[in-house]
Design brief:
The complex is a heterodimer.
Chain A: E1 13-14, E2 20-21, H1 24-34, E3 38-42, H2 46-54, E4 77-81, H3 89-98, E5 104-108, H4 109-114, E6 135-137, H5 144-160, H6 167-180
Parallel strand pairs in A: 3-4, 4-5, 5-6
Antiparallel strand pairs in A: 1-2
Chain B: H1 6-20, E1 24-28, E2 35-38, H2 43-53, E3 58-66, E4 77-85, E5 90-98, E6 104-106, H3 115-126, E7 129-131, H4 169-173
Parallel strand pairs in B: 2-5, 6-7
Antiparallel strand pairs in B: 1-2, 3-4, 4-5
The chains are: A alpha/beta, B alpha/beta.
Bound molecules: iron/sulfur cluster (SF4).
């Protein structure tokens, strides 16, 4: 089994001096996907299920996503678990906006994905109307395994995404793009 | 079938009829409950009497009913007060018909503190104007929300997007 097959780090060479060489975006992606800091935006029963995933029986820390933060400034994965109503929609948007890039969104449960069985004047019919969603989890509530599956799916996705340039290089890129349009 | 509350209800209904006469429009005793239908003009007197002289010290809830399209009704709306007496272990329901053309109704916040949020909810859902309420604004829906969602002529899926977040500073600063 090659080291790369494990999905661990994209090692390219490991020489006898003990130095490892790899590409920067590989190691950045590896770091990102294995230390997702979730922000649980729990508003209803689905949030209870999330507690199950974090605690010892299912143990989301096996996937590196156990460090639950309640501040958008300290997290990079927002897990929307529960019913979102129109009064809460601006709050969710504001919190999403406060998360620093890169940020990922998991929509957990029928309510967050589509409004669930609440089709009335109060309930938003799916949070993808407000914020971009990376992974949807169906279920009412989803099983804890489904949440772990969603985290794995998100990790796969992060593994494939290009790492954006940073600082002045990023600015050049953005300026170029704006000039084109 | 009678329950332990039935004799207390009998006594209470007799007393209310005796005291308020024609202002008690009707009494409904179905399902062992006691529902007293009161004219709007004397609702505050009836509630004050029950609170101060008949020890109904708990206002459980204030609800609204939209009677549109019902086979029989007095007025378009009803305001319903659910009262409970902890010392006497008895509950009673007071109903007030409210016309669509005159949605004013005296507040009960001077009698029970819990009327504050109950009336705010009834206001936002049906549009009753509780005269004398200290802070009559929307409780559950967003402050940018327009209309009264539990009215039968409000569209069932009439969600409204709101742009701002809101806080509760005004409620926190309210005198207690
Ligand atoms: S999807 Fe089901 S379990 Fe989850 S918040 Fe909605 S009603 Fe509750």
């Amino acid at each position: 089994m090659g080291v790369k097959d494990t999905g661990f780090v994209g090692f390219e060479t490991k020489n006898e001096t003990g130095l490892i060489t790899t590409r920067l975006d590989e190691i950045v992606r590896w770091g990102r996907k294995n230390s997702l800091w979730p922000l649980p935006f729990g508003t209803a029963c689905c949030a209870i299920e999330f507690m199950g995933v974090v605690s010892s029986k299912f143990d989301i820390s096996r996937f590196g996503a156990e460090l639950v933060r309640f501040s958008p400034r300290q997290s990079d994965m927002i897990l929307v678990a529960g019913t979102i109503n129109y009064k809460l929609a601006p709050v969710l948007k504001k919190i999403y906006d406060q998360i620093a890039e890169p940020k990922y969104v998991i929509s957990m449960g029928a309510c967050a994905c589509s409004g669930g069985f609440y089709d009335n004047y109060a309930t938003v019919q799916g949070i993808d109307q407000i914020i971009p969603v990376d992974v949807f989890i169906p279920g009412c509530p989803p099983r804890p395994e489904a949440i772990l599956h969603a985290v794995m799916k998100l990790q796969e996705r992060i593994d494939k995404e290009p790492v954006p340039k940073r600082g002045v290089h990023r600015r050049h890129e953005v300026v170029e793009k704006l000039r084109d349009t | 079938m009678a329950t332990r509350e039935t004799p207390k209800h009998d006594a209470l209904v007799a007393e209310l009829k005796n005291r308020f006469g024609a202002k008690i429009l009707d009494v409904d005793r179905s399902f062992d409950d006691c529902t007293v239908i009161v004219d709007k003009a004397s609702i505050h007197d009836v509630l004050a009497f029950l609170k101060n002289e008949r020890r109904f010290n708990l206002l459980l809830d204030i609800a609204g009913v939209d009677c549109m399209n019902l086979p029989k009704f007095r007025e378009r709306f009803e305001v319903v007060y659910m009262l409970y007496s902890i010392p006497d272990v008895v509950r009673v329901r007071i109903e007030v018909p409210v016309s669509e053309l005159d949605l004013d109704i005296p507040t009960a916040t001077d009698l029970w503190k819990s009327a504050n949020w109950g009336e705010r909810e009834a206001f936002e859902m049906f549009g009753f104007n509780f005269v004398g309420h200290p802070c009559l604004k929307r409780l559950l829906t967003h402050h940018e929300f327009v209309g009264h969602p539990l009215r039968k002529d409000y569209p069932l899926m009439g969600g409204q997007w709101c742009a701002t977040t809101s806080d509760m500073t005004e409620e926190l600063n309210e005198p207690r």
